[in-house]
Amino acid sequence: MNNKFDLIVIGAGPGGYIAAIRASQLGMSVACIDAWSNINGNPAPGGTCTNVGCIPSKALLQSSEYFDHVNHSFHTHGIEISNAKININNFLKRKDNIVKQNNEGILYLFKKNKVSFFHGKGSFFGKENDQWLIKVKNKEESILSAKNVIIATGSIAREFPNIAFDEQTILSNDGALSINTVPKKLGIIGAGVIGLELGSVWRRLGADVTILESAPNFLAAADSQISKEAFKLFTKQGLKINVGIEVKDISYSKNSVSVKYKDSSSNNHEIIFDKLIVSIGRIPFTKDLNAESVGLTLDSKGFISVDNYCKTNLQNIWAIGDVVRGPMLAHKAEEEGVFVAEMIAGQKGHLNFNNIPWVIYTSPEIAWVGKNEQQLKELKRDYKIGSFPFIANGRARALGDTSGFVKIIADKYTDEVLGVHIIGAMASELISEAVTIMEFKGSSEDIARIWHAHPTLSESLKEAALALDNRSLNY
């Protein structure tokens, strides 16, 4: 097998495999190295997103939402079902099958696009002339070489200080996706995306879920109106969300875990859980790169230092995705992958970090793009707001899910859309229209004048845009 390439990509997560494919499309000879393995030891490309993140969590969210509908809302449609039960083995098996399909899909795409795939850990081995040497270690070792290298090794879950994940009682997102019995009492440290999504999954299946968040405000990254609405809806569903918490001590055995904490009023508490999910963020994964041997610069938090073009301090070494600055989002990594591949090919890439959409796949879903009110107030930007509730939308009524609203923020004078914030059914799909409008610096009037099919949830964006000028037609 040829071991010399134009480009070597270390990591086959969303950023890495996309970068490899795009580079191959542009005429480069490309190798992609990835160490993920499935339960049988076979290659499992796709990174955290495919194996223990985005894909499996959405599979469990969808299955658990169906179960929740069976028990709580199907009767409103005239569908009578009694004594519905959850088969955890099949529940998890479906998730595993979806992950496998995605793994196999990436391997197929590599073959289709003539990307050479190497299963194993990739690390720097040195340099000869203008060629970087990369060692691949699995059962055997081999040395690859290329002029260009893209590092896309992703991130791993952050452990609570002095408490390691055993994935039985103290769980990362990995273990939380494979719980084989519904815990009676489930604790979660961290009310971010992972905590809320996994908390929603197991609450729907019958667990008593308590979330402990250190920040004083719930979902501080979202628009404050969205956060307040989300808190109201999630607590009504049964999630117990506590903010301003200081965890003082965690102790655990095989069957239980004790969490002692101080609340926002400085009162001390202790709760005994069956299992505890720790979702306090993620850290870049660089420990197996042998970065120090070649002088690759990392910042104080362990991220690989890059400029605005994803270039590291070393010639022809690039880094993308969770291992560099910016939000840890799969679609951010993908676009950086395309960007760098095109830069290497001599093209002019495109990245606009201001228009990255954010999504939380709870029920209702939450999505936003651009600035929220808090940020615009800090910037002392003059703005105007239009909003529209889904309860006034015909399609939402037909779906039986009228919770939430759409909020559009535009410049007071130019009408340029500065931010769009949605909480409601299918928010993850609706946000794309807002991203498109903002990418072309469109106005709220543009949204108001665009045809929207009736009846659709997307009409709520049109109505919110009309509301900026006090001319909403259906509310």
Automatic annotation (TrEMBL):
Catalytic machinery residues: 454
Family membership: Belongs to the class-I pyridine nucleotide-disulfide oxidoreductase family.
GO cellular component: cytoplasm
Additional remark text: The active site is a redox-active disulfide bond.
Top-level enzyme category: oxidoreductase
Catalytic activity field: N(6)-[(R)-dihydrolipoyl]-L-lysyl-[protein] + NAD(+) = N(6)-[(R)-lipoyl]-L-lysyl-[protein] + NADH + H(+)
Name the UniProt record assigns to this protein: Dihydrolipoyl dehydrogenase
Binding site for NAD(+): 190-197, 213, 281
Domain (Pyridine nucleotide-disulphide oxidoreductase dimerisation) ranges: 356-465
Molecular functions per Gene Ontology: dihydrolipoyl dehydrogenase (NADH) activity; flavin adenine dinucleotide binding
NCBIfam families, sorted: lipoamide_DH
Cofactor(s) this protein cannot do without: FAD
Pfam families: Pyr_redox_2, Pyr_redox_dim
